[in-house]
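Input/output pair, single chain:
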Amino acid sequence: MRCLPSIISFVICVSPLAASAGDVKRDLIQRCDELAAMPGNPDNPPSIRGVFFYAVDFGHAVAACQSALKAAPNNRRIRFQYARALQAAKRYGESFDIYNQLSAEGYAPAQSNLGYAYDLGLGVAQNYEKAVAWYQKAADQGDATAQVNLGYAYDYGLGVAQNHEKAVAWYLKAAEQGYAPAQNNLGYAYDYGLGVTQNYEKALVWYRKAADQGYAGAQNSLGYAYEHGQGVAQNYEKGVAWYQKAADQGDASAQYNLGYEYEHGQGVAQSYEKAVAWYRKAADQGHAPAQNNLGYAYQHGKGVEQNYEKALAWYQKAADQGDASAQSSLGYAYEHGRGVEQNYEKAVAWYQKAAGQGVASAQNGLGNAYDFGRGVVQNHEKAVAWYLKAAEQGYATAQDNLGYSYAYGQGVAQNYETALAWYRKAADQGDAIAQSYLGYAYAQGQGVAQNYEKAVAWYQKAADQGDASAQGNLGFLYATGRGVTPDQLRAAKLFLLSGSADYLKQLLTDRTRARKIQRRLRELGYYSGAIDGDFGAKSRAALHAYCGC
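Output:
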């Protein structure tokens, strides 16, 4: 209440006027518009941009639109938005009935959403043909949502014969109305050359139009373009910025991509913990690649405490959705008993699923299964066939295994030259076992002219990675001075590192060699005893100190 001074001695108090019924109605309608209006609906007030379906806050929208509908029961837009809120709340039967009534009245947005209900079987039996029929009715009235959905039907052959060109035509109609999902889909068409000539620059133009309207899918695609330099100069920082915009809206693909950037330190400081956090957000939405990567994080203890059981659980979620990498990882878990009881038959079953999708690690896993008869009847020929599939994809472990098969004639005719060729492919990728074999091949002249210098070079590469076999063989070459200047101390260290106890014993019981080792240890400041060739406790302590092992 407010009080006004009077011309006489008392004060007049005036109560504020109660809000008019018209004001209340207007406020209720505006609230419903703000929460549930569909972007692109020509009935929307100029100040209302609309809310993309994935962002509808149905918890508030249903109540707000229900109140608005009571105030304006004949307002088609409000009836439609109420149905949209119900649909977001998964009250499909109720939303379907309202869409059906409005569609009979010729209301295009409702016809579009009725088509969507038939498309996904929401509140009605799924029927692509009926979906297309309703999309067509709405699209012919210029409804942008229906136009993009009709384009999608042509893109994937749902209810109509697949036709990417027709899909693009419908996307373009909606995109030219400024409808972000259509602009995004048109960007995708140019990105992958579907119905148009592939053109990354044009894809980027359409993605940006949709992204600037806040469309998460397009923001994610822009992030990918910047990450990979498609249609634009590669820029990880800009890629991360776009991924972040989409991820903050809950887009699972963007959350996954942002996790990947943090895992690999691209455009951001590397952080396994942040990678795991983003992977988890996407994984909780059912994003299979994120579930797989979360499994990997638990398996290897990256950003989380290592836990094989949790790794297995996430791999299982992804594998059940057909994720090939996760299926291969499940095969590995069963093969090695990581987080689950070892079971070769189950390992083979999962490897088979992933190998059928072309995953090299699974093809190599199947090769191992046949090679050693684990979970299947031993068959070296089948092993070689699977190794070859993986090796031809550049999988180093399979190349190494194929080299072994040729070197020892398992499943194929023995052929040292072919063995050497496969070992070299693996060795060039840093495979220590293959590098060690190449050292052996050059030392023995097996499949290649004997060359101790090259043997030393390859053994050294493998030894530097901790390969015990290479360390022992390299030690022998240093002890005997083959391909390298003799160095008894280095030989002793290599024998010690490799666990070659017999070679080390032979070396240290040779008093001439032992004296050389003692002398060198004294020069380096590790030993102060007599140079007598008697390699006792003091000499051994000095050798271990030098070795650091």
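Confidence is low (pLDDT under 50) at residues 1-18. The beta strands are 2-5, 11-14.
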